[in-house]
Amino acid sequence: MKNIIFILLFVVLNGATCEKEHEVIRSFCYWKTDLNFDKQDDSLIKDLKMQHLYVRFFDVDWNPYAKEPLPVATIHDIRLNASNPEITPGIFITNEVVLQSDNKQLDSLASRIAKRIQQIGVQINEAKASKTAEEIAYPKDYYKQKNYKSINYDSVRSIELAKLKVDFKEILIDCDWTEKSQKNYFYLLKQIKKEIPTAKLAATIRLWQYKYAEKAGTPPVDKGLLMCYNLTKPDDFKTKNSIGTSDELAKYITHDKYKLKLDIALPLYSWAVVFRGNQFKGILSDYDELRNDTIKAKKLSDSKYVLQDDVLVGQTYLRNGDEIRIEKISEAELEKMISIVKSKIKIDHETKVTFFSFDKKYINDYGTQNISDYYSSF
């Protein structure tokens, strides 16, 4: 009897240990032009037990007039609330930048990328210090407290700011490099690493780069972020779902020999693709009102609608007869995609599982419990 109890206790404890060892880091991508968290955002972060965010800091594009790479679309309006997940800066670099630049320009670009990351880091720290000072100087219902003594906000802010340092553990570089641009891109990554030696360097890995690793090359970074979405082009009228399907994903994740440790990025968004006479006309991110209007939009199938009238959706003018294809990954498809990833890629307690993107609309659409279950599936 004692032996049976001992065995059962061992199984229970060992099972609990294994479960803890494989609990992944819960992460999201925040790919907007501002960093402005409100109370609802904070609540979602808390409900999801989110630990990490990839935040797009800026893009780098090729300027044909200056004939050099220049940072564009830098994040602004940085305001933080109570939530404080770890932030990894994300920098998107167009393939044209690495195709057109010479080594001297890439050296300069690496230096400018490092400086701009530092500058934005300072702004984030200022936002954190401001929030802390606000909470200390003006606590909730402070004006109702009889014995409350006023505290100088600016002094508290200065003290809190002095405690903070710009110290990102990791930097993410996002570029869909090609065989032709590989040499220049890998050179740029090495230069960025030299400029920011204290941080780990990560790079996004597209699925074709994963499948054909020998042809694409393995970037000289510490980690990769495997992008398990945007598998086909949305402008193809015959495409079923350009965001992704489990069948398409399985065609790419065919081996377990990739040389980098990989984090995983999965889709958690939707959009509507517009066609006019089978010709691609654009993408709508906000389409719910249109889809729910049974007078102006006739339902052809679960994912396709045809307009019955001319309509204005946001700033986009659509015509009678335009066809709308709704693209979203179903819960069942997402679960299949997770199984495919797990079958080939090593997942452990250091793996970041990231959903794109952090947006109240998408998170509420899928539900925080379902998303938590997706994390737990790993």
Q: Could you characterize the architecture of this molecule?
A:
It is built from 13 helices and 18 strands. By secondary structure, the chain is an alpha/beta fold. It starts with a helix and ends with a helix. Mean pLDDT is 90; it is low at 5-13 and 15-20.
How many β strands by DSSP?
A: 18
Largest sheet: 8 strands, parallel, barrel
Share in helix: 25-40%
**What portion of the residues fall into strands of 2 or more residues?**
25-35%
Q: Which stretches are poorly predicted, pLDDT < 50 over at least 5 residues?
A: 5-13, 15-20
Seen as an oligomer or otherwise, the chain set is single chain
Chain-averaged pLDDT: 90
Outline: globular
By DSSP (H or I, 4+ residues per run), the number of helices equals: 13
N→C terminal distance = 36 Å
Biggest sheet, spatial arrangement of strands: 1-3-6-7-8-9-10-18
Radius of gyration: 24 Å
Query: Which structural class fits the helix and strand makeup?
Result: alpha/beta
TL;DR?
The protein contains 13 helices and 18 strands. It has 378 residues and is α/β, with parallel strands linked by helices.
Q: SSE layout and pairings?
A:
Elements: H1 2-21, E1 25-30, E2 34-36, H2 39-48, E3 52-63, E4 68-72, E5 76-79, E6 86-93, H3 95-100, H4 103-137, H5 153-163, E7 170-174, H6 182-195, E8 200-205, H7 207-211, H8 213-216, E9 223-227, H9 246-252, E10 262-267, E11 270-276, E12 279-284, H10 288-291, E13 297-299, E14 304-307, E15 311-313, E16 316-318, E17 323-328, H11 331-344, E18 352-356, H12 360-366, H13 368-377
